[in-house]
Amino acid sequence: MRGETLLTKDFPREKSWQRIGDTYLSIILKPAQYFFQHMSKAMSLSAPPDFIDEYQRERLKKVVKECCKIPYWREKFQQANVDTNKIETLEDLIGVETTRDEVEKNWKKMMHPGSFYIKFKTSGTTLNPLPVPASISHLVSILPVIASRCKESMGITEKDTVLVIFPTKAASQRLSTLGKALLGYNIKFADILNVDEQLRKVKDADIVIGYSTAITKLAQFMNTKHKRKVRKFITTSEPLPKVAEDFIKEKTGAQVQKTYGMIEALSLVGETCEKGNYHLFSDLFAIRFKNGEILLTSLDKRRKLPLINYHTGDYGKEVKCDCGITHKSFIVEEEARRRFNSERVLASISSLPEFYSGDVSPYFDFQEEFHGVGTQHPKRIFNLTVYATPKVNKDEIKSKLERILLYGDGKHLKPAEKTLFWLNMGLIEINVRVKQIDDLKKIVRVKNPRK
Q1: Within this chain, do residues 287 and 225 fall inside the same structural domain, yes or no?
Q2: Number of domains the chain is built from
Q3: Which residue of 258, 379, 412, 439 pairs with 243 in a disulfide if CB–CB is 3.0 to 4.6 A?
């Protein structure tokens, strides 16, 4: 049976996991164990650069060979006059590029035919959820790489208890079983909607992994008894602004390690070292920079949806790093993707004095509306709702937020020049609303679809 009828529900929503249930777990567990025992090719963080280059070159050739079997990609190669038999590096694929809009419109044409698949969806950080198909063989093949990097670069050992703050309980129970069987870690999951549950379980955790907003909120409510054991927080899925990172360190005394990735990658792309630079998962991806934008190419031929020079919408540059990790090092200067984005909202909230007193929640509702689409003067309206306790003055919070969002805070945030330009042109409108609630623990981030 094709997965189109069984496994293409939005993942990992609760109904989808309940429908797949233990059948899915039994499907993935045996081949995953095989990969761990026999086929793990995860490279050491200190692998020789020449070895990394050769390894990536061979993987790239295989990916291109598989793409030639897909009419959509064959046409792209022909249009760019690329000789697929002479591919050695990414430079040989200049002219073959993919964009988010292209994936959104043509993902079914771009993927390998046959076999069932799971359809993931973005979390909505970019305000435009994107469907991404994944095959079981690909998901299984990347597990050894991620596990190896977690042990080596993130300092996770088999003695550690890892708390994962996850969106769905139904998925968490089965992933916990899978993780324990494969990785050997003692993994616990806490529902992202339940801060009290997170506070109970964090007391026994050595490592905490979760969404940036979820960890920021957890840190806001942690006290001495909660933080006596946690030595590191690892943020995923969303950008973590510097002001929020500093807050987590100051409040908990623990280290903070950031990861870089996106749902289109179906994996982590890189993670930060002790110097604060990102290092690439060279087993799985190659990157290059075009006018400062990060272009991502997948190196696993088992991927259901290949990516070649994919425009991530993130900007950065390659840097030299003396931390000892030999994988390509880079910085991400602006995880933006939109002129007015969730990273800036979180950074603005984290800049408020009221945030540090626990009277303003890092969670918020963020909606984007489009008016006059197709006309000469289309208008984008951003509606932001922030939650605060009755102790604070709503008008003061609203005024402060509007000022920081547009003009920065003079320390962490620079003025949003593009936003100001569009604001002055009358093509953008920002509405800030402050809603007062007695118990901020009950507030969760609402994932608003693009309108």
Answers
A1: yes
A2: 2
A3: 412
Q: Is 121:134 a contact under the CB 8 Å cutoff?
A: no
Q: In what order do the strands lie in the sheet with 360-371?
A: 360-371, 379-388, 428-436
Query: What pTM was computed for the model?
Result: 0.73
Q: Residue 447: inside a domain, yes or no? A: no
Domain containing residue 151: 3-334
The domain boundary, picked from 311, 334, 357, lies at 334
Domain boundary, last residue among 334, 359, 384:
334
- Kindly state whether residues 142 and 250 are assigned to the same domain: yes
Instruction: State the greatest distance between any 2 C-alpha atoms of the chain, in Å, as a whole number.
Output: 67
Residues 318, 384, single domain; the answer is no
> pLDDT by residue (tens digit) across 336-369?
444 456 677 888 888 888 888 888 988 888 776 7
Residue closest to 209 by CA, chosen among 258, 281, 278 = 258
* 431's tokens: 């509405």
Residue 419 and residue 340 in contact, taking contact as beta carbons nearer than 8 Å = yes
SS3 432: strand
Q: Phi-psi region for residue 198, left (φ > 0), alpha (ψ -120 to 50) or beta? A: alpha
Give yes or no: residues 289 and 416 share one domain: no
For 260-303, the pLDDT digits (tens) are: 888 788 888 898 998 889 999 988 899 999 988 899 999 888 78
Q: Residue 451 falls within a domain, yes or no?
A: no
Instruction: Specify the length of the chain in residues.
Output: 451
Q: Is there a contact between 129 and 450 (Cβ–Cβ < 8 Å)?
A: yes
Phi, psi of 62 (to 5 degrees): -65, -40
Which of 420, 396, 392, 415 lies closest to 404, judged by CA?
A: 415
Q: Are residues 330 and 350 in the same domain?
A: no
DSSP-assigned letters across all residues of 351-371: TSHHHHTT-EEEEEEEEEEEE
Please check whether residues 78 and 102 belong to one and the same domain: yes
Q: Residue 272: beta bridge partners?
A: 278
Query: Looking at this protein, which amino acid is placed at residue 98?
Result: T
